[in-house]
Amino acid sequence: MARSSGGGSRGGGSRSSGGSRSSSRSGGRSGPSYRTSSTYFPGARKFRYYRGGTPHYVYSDRDLTKIKDIKPRWFLIAFYIPFILAIFGIAQTVFSTPKEPMMSYNQAQVQVVDEGNVFSDQEEDDLKDLLKQFGETTGVTTQIVTVNYDEWIDNRSFSDYALARYYSQFDDENSWCLVYSEQNEGAGDWEWEGIQGDNTIDVMDVFIDSFNTQVQSKLTVDQTADPAAAFELGFNKAINLFENQSFHIDMEQLPIFIFMVIFIGVHMYFMVFAGTHKKYKNKELEEVSSGYNDGYNSTYNNPSSNKQKEQWVECDYCGYKWEDPSDNRCPHCGATVNINL
Fold first, then answer.
1. Strand partners, 288
2. Buried b vs exposed e over 120-144: b needs ≥16 C-beta within 10 Å?
3. Is 113 in a helix, a strand, or coil?
4. Mean pLDDT split into 10-residue runs, the chain, 341 residues
5. What pLDDT is recorded for position 266?
6. For a disulfide at 146, which of 77, 108, 118, 258, Cβ 3.0-4.6 Å?
7. Helix intervals (H) in 139-207
């Protein structure tokens, strides 16, 4: 459906384009089906590996020696599809490439419908020539319609009237209708509104903000509004911007885009492709006693077990027990203890 492309009034200031871009951010939390930690937690099993000849320990509620070859969790990619689509949407606003003209330009429909008797004959002819030049440049078929306040003031808002007028002038979504209204007898109040078809949004994004600013500023700066000069200024600016398009990067949006790419990329990597099995893939892991008797594994976790009792070492500082008598540094607090074998 057609929408406002912007407008303004004498006292109300300018109105921006009705088209808007929005982005949403949402987050989720997901993770592996097992837990790992560098410190003990209830029910954890303890595993040892060596790095540079120094023993290191990791705790997990699963047997890490048997889950090294877990395959990527491809089903999780479905969770990231909305975020990936959002990134592509933001990319289109951050990186602007030159737009091609629309292919629906209809010169026969280019008109200046001066029902409000606002323009002189010469101004009307000049504006129509300018609208044709604009249409040949952008492919957008445009009409300018002027009416008096009496046409709409008693029955509806001006925006509603402008929208209805669009569909009385056009039967497609490829056009642009600019409606300008003045009070009778030169009372000084005026309003204008542009209504653009849905199919013109991508093309008109190139110049619409500048067009609105130029028209509103020209109408406001003069003591007596000069709509012909205002529209001429706006259309000349629009044609110039469209003809001189270049690749453009929106520096205000770029940091947001970079953050989203890095955040979603890193998050997806660790959730889908990485994990504990990758972290310890190239390490020789062996399960050792956790030093805690919580009933999880009587062989390793119970220091009274006959099988492991002679190997237990107790830290004099924190009371932690471990089973490697050759390691005199407490894995729990890091203190060095004396071992008498």
1. 46
2. eeebbebbbebbeebbebbbbbbbb
3. strand
4. 76 56 38 69 82 81 66 76 87 74 88 94 96 95 94 89 95 95 75 94 90 93 84 95 78 86 86 61 70 50 42 70 67 71 49
5. 87
6. 118
7. 158-169, 201-204
Q: What is the pTM of this model?
A: 0.54
Could you give the maximum distance between any two Cα atoms of the chain, in Å?
112
* Three-state SS at 198: helix
Write down the pLDDT at residue 26: 36
Dump the DSSP string for 227-284: HHHHHHHHHHHHHHHHHT---EE-TTTHHHHHHHHHHHHHHHIIIII-SHHHHTTTS-
Give φ, ψ of 76 to 5 degrees. Answer: -70, -15
Q: Domain residue spans in the chain?
A: 3-23+103-246, 31-97+248-288
* CA 42 from centroid of its chain's CA atoms: 41
Helices (H), the chain: 77-94, 121-138, 158-169, 201-204, 208-221, 227-243, 254-268, 276-279, 298-301
Residue 69 near residue 44 (C-beta atoms within 8 A)? no
Residue range 3-23+103-246 in CATH 3.10.310.50: yes
Question: What is the pLDDT, as a whole number, of residue 70?
Answer: 54
Look at residue 39 in the predicted model and tell me its pLDDT.
Answer: 84
